[in-house]
Amino acid sequence: MQYKVGIGYDIHRLIEGRPLFLGAVKIPYIKGLLGYSDGDVLIHALCDALLGALALGDIGELFPDTDPEYRGIASSRLLGIVKELLDKSGYKINNLDVIIIAQEPTLAPFKKQIKEKLCALLGIEQDVLNIKAKTNEGLGAVGHLEAIACYAMVSLAKGG
Fold this sequence. Notes:
The protein has a single domain (2-158), classed as CATH 3.30.1330.50. Helices cover 30% and strands 32% of the residues. It has five helices and seven strands. The strands form two sheets. The protein has a five-stranded mixed beta sheet with strand order 4-1-7-5-6. A two-stranded antiparallel sheet has the order 2-3. A hairpin with a 2-residue loop joins strand 2 and strand 3 (25-27). The longest helix has 15 residues, at 75-89. It starts with a strand and ends with a strand. 40% of the residues are buried. The model has no long low-confidence stretch (mean pLDDT 96).
């Protein structure tokens, strides 16, 4: 077996007047995430983790915010393109671990729905993906309700 590992990180500013998407799930909240796309930090971190494991750069290189094709695009579509690259590589997702860092809203009620959505988008079983939701204990931009951040780590396997 051959293995590869990738890590991804993203943070976006919270603003009024935009919907909040996390893991392609619309979360009811008074603010949404600012971004060239829909601002889904979870999917962006996940894309970066997958691209890193495949040594294919990062989400900003693949989907630049200077390209009008990606303006306002659903991040789930970006993940679909990254998934095609993964499929072409011959590697499969062995394990995926995600940490969403948000002071608000409380994400526990949405974790199951996010997990189901991401597993469907990636074509993986639910025991391959773990999602954790944390606050920032009132510290920094996340703790002051100015942003939401996310880390994702993926291990890929091929052969055997």
